[in-house]
Amino acid sequence: MDETAAGVTRLLLAWRGGDERALERLIPLIYGELRRLAGRYLSRERAGHTLETHDLIHEAFLRLIDQRQVDWRNRSHFFAIAAQMMRRILVDHARRRGYRKHGGDVRRLMLDDVPDLAIQRDMGLVALDEALSELAEVDGELAKVVELRFFGGLDHDEIAAALGVSHPTVRRRWRMAKAWLYRRLAGEVAHGV
Amino acid sequence: MASERWRQVEEIFAGAVALPAAERGPWLTRHCGGDVELRREIESLLAADGAAGDFLERPAAVPETAPPESAVGRRIGPYAIERKLGEGGMSTVYVAARADEEYRQQVAIKVFGYGADRRDLVERFRAERQILALLDHPNIARLLDGGTTSDGLPYLVMEYIDGVPIDRYCDERLLSIEKRIELFRQVCSAVQYAHQNLVVHRDIKPSNILVTADGVPHLLDFGIAKLLEGSSLTRAAAATVTGQRLMTPHYASPEQVEGKPVTTATDVYSLGVLLYVLLAGRLPYRLAGDRLGEVEQAVLEQQPERPSVTAGRQKLARQLAGDLDNIVLTALRKEPTRRYASVELLAEDLRRHRTGLPVLARPSTVGYRVSKFVGRHRLGVGVAALLALVILGLAATMTVQAARLVRQRDEIRRERDKAVQVADFLEEIFSAADPARARGETVTAREVLDRGAARITAELADQPEVQAALAAAIGRSYAGLGAYDRAEALLDRSLTLRRKVFGASHPEIAESLFDQAALYYARGDLELAEATFRQVVQMRRALLGGTDPAVAEGLNGLGLVLISKAKFDAAEPVLREALAINRKQYGNDNEEVGSNLGNLGLLMKQKGDLAAAEALYSEALAIFRRLFDAPHPQVVIQLNNLAMLQSDRGEFAAAEASYRETLAVARRVYGREHPQTALFLANLAGMLSARGKHDEAERLARESLALRRRLLGDENEQVARGLNTLATILEEKGELAQARASYEESLRIFRLSFSAEHPRIGAVLANLANLLLQQGDPAAAEPLARQALAIRRRALGVAHPDVGSSLVSLGSIRLARGAAEEAEPLLRQGYETLRAALSEDHWRTADARSQLGACLAVRGKAAEAEPLLTSGYETLLATRGAWDRRTLAAGRRLNAFRRAA
User: Fold this and answer.
1) Which of A116, A141, A185 to mutate to test binding with chain B, by most B CBs within 10 Å of its CB?
2) ipTM of the prediction greater than 0.85, yes or no
3) How far apart are CA B202 and CA B204, in angstroms?
4) Which of B53, B285, B450, B484 lies in disulfide reach of B298, CB 3.0 to 4.6 Å?
5) What's the pTM value of the predicted model, to 2 decimals?
6) What is the distance in angstroms between the Cα of B224 and the nearest Cα belonging to chain A?
7) Which of B155, B169, B130 is nearest to B68 (CA)?
């Protein structure tokens, strides 16, 4: 793992230093590790509680990156890349399990009387993913904040660092994006049922 | 959205969202100016922001799909998990014990969620919880509790059934065929109960039916059960199984294999497979190997071998051949509509087999093809036919004919009529309401009719012939909906128009007269109905000859009127003539023939000949089952007839179930606001009262009465019937003053509609006399009892059980008035009449026996009195239960006798 870690760390730093090709090589490495880790949870191999994506990304980060060489900003960038990948992994998984276009589940289940949030959370993943892509067409920056926060589990400081914007900007974009997505998905409930 | 515009939205939104709600309006006014669209966009986002709550606030999670391996030993709520019982597609079932109680109660806990798609899981959990909460039956594992585990997984706590799968139970104990059938019938009662609650199990198989050590089968696992239409829960539950076939293929019905809609017939099929396995010891289909999909293919295509052939052993084969073969194969028919129409009928057929009665299951016949043909020709006018059918059906007990003839008439008319308009017009009016849908939606049908009625006047003024035909069709439909005034106006108009066109005597005139007669009959104008039906028969005989089915139609109507007027001797030859004409014309498998048979059955039942009535009803039912898809008015009527016979035989629990089913189906066929629905409500109320469920009985009786008053007016004979039913229930409840008022009002209204000699008037008089006797006023009771007896003797003949009851009643009144010597012969004669007409063990006979015993005790004939009092009491105890008014009275008589001795 040390070799990989050294390699991944080097690539991350190279990318941060402006080497765009480094990212191309970095992505499959991170993606592979995330998939492997996620797969352990998504299959039946592990007993335990629901795992938040942030924990999983963190685990990948620990495995892939030599901590001594990166500062928290670099770490945020790693998380930002990973968040995007987590989105893909989770949505693909949900899609494979038969979540077709059942938009509105997010909200419907929010209002549900079953008190378990863990259940709701991955309910409307596919719908959310689609709505998020629509939002990205309107405003890519808003969509990015959602991706980092929801799929990557990053907090506002990490997001600010990863995107190179101020904390209030992140907060403002988050609120706007949330309202937009909620309206979009809630509207789908109203029309789709 | 343009980028610049978007920035604007974002900025104004960000500004507004930071403000308290009250300040947002002015902010928007300031920043949006007159840009309405911009403002609306921001307001909508603000609303979403306000409603979003913690939407997206918790980050996505990797779904955890593995079961906690350490579940055993853990606790779920107050229950300690002891061991895993099994695992299904979406759930794991554990045995657990409630540890914090003094006693240790074992339960089964079903935890949802391991390895499951979570959306399905929540819906499934909710559906199953709601389904189980609906069901409370001794043969269904009960829901005890439910909740969410600390992991957030929903769970259900159920009664733990420590038993053996039913097939193993039967084999291990080497149960006889009779015992197996008995066990199976208990399973049927559980499934039937579920169906009455609109729940279809969908996964009936031995491993879901566990028999406990005490020999009681328990139906488990409503995990893929479904709520039928009519329930508000339908959607959630129905959504779950789309796309995935969860059932066990060997027990799955063809419609499940094909992914088609599932109904109660699906459970009938699976029960058929189960019965096959229990009887023959093998599954119904022969499979060459275990190729994937082979079972499914066999279910769809292979005709099952007769159980007697499969069984092998000769003795067993002999037991199964015939009835049991037919019963099993009827349940296993590929087409859902050709199976038993209900689980109850399956169970009933097994009962009939056991008691040696002819079973309803028959090998398929030409009738099937006929019914297919009829089905194909149920056109747009089906609605009219269907509604018109009801005209004759107002007395629920009646098997009516009409749909087919109306259909025929409409078809003939369409061919005959030069004006294609009729067909087009009808098509246009009626196709708006698809027959299948219209059955449950009288409102829609009514609207359709109103539109139609308005249009014929406006558009067809210059075509009286066409207008007359349409007025008749719509008038019949109004009558079917119980809108008698509107119906009468249209039918009168039709007749007037036709007289202008055709003169005094013509088939079309006869048809109009027939419609009117049917209306008069439905409304209870029996004199007018009889006269008009006679006119119809006479005119048709003259015009068409004596053997035309149209003559039979008139005779059938006349027969019904005569039954209502209790002119039984006159009714029988009339109905038999109608039957003969129709049989000759159509053969046996025909709706008219079925109707005639059913009406003859009614006649026999009214005369008190239950055995003859049952045979005739069964014959009619068999014909209708071959002809119709359920639900259909004819099927409702037959269900009701069956319930009445069960009730008359003293099988109250079964009768209650049957009445409930009748009502449920009737509501689907007729809708809630319909005289027929009111009738079935009243019937159920009467039965509930007999079962001691007084409050529900009273509620339903009042509901029915209110419905009748609303639909038919306050002085309709059906209102009088409703009052009589209500009074009986109040009397059972012990509210004698209220009961008396209702009886008296009922009597008053009956006397407005009927001749003074009508047996219904006799019945109400008898009821009132008994009530007065109970109230301690035998002097007031006596003249009423005498009137009742006189009416019944004349109307029903001396051997009728009602005459026996009247004699007993009069005897008791004389006894109460101190004339024991006079009472004795009355009571003896009454008792003997009942014994001959019903049976020794009938509750009415037992009641008479007890009363006779009491009289003999007073007369000092203790030796003769004692066995009568004892056996009267015991029979009542067994047939009516301990809390029945009559049982209690018989107990008091017996105690008084013993104290005196």
Assistant:
1) A116
2) no
3) 6
4) B285
5) 0.42
6) 19
7) B155
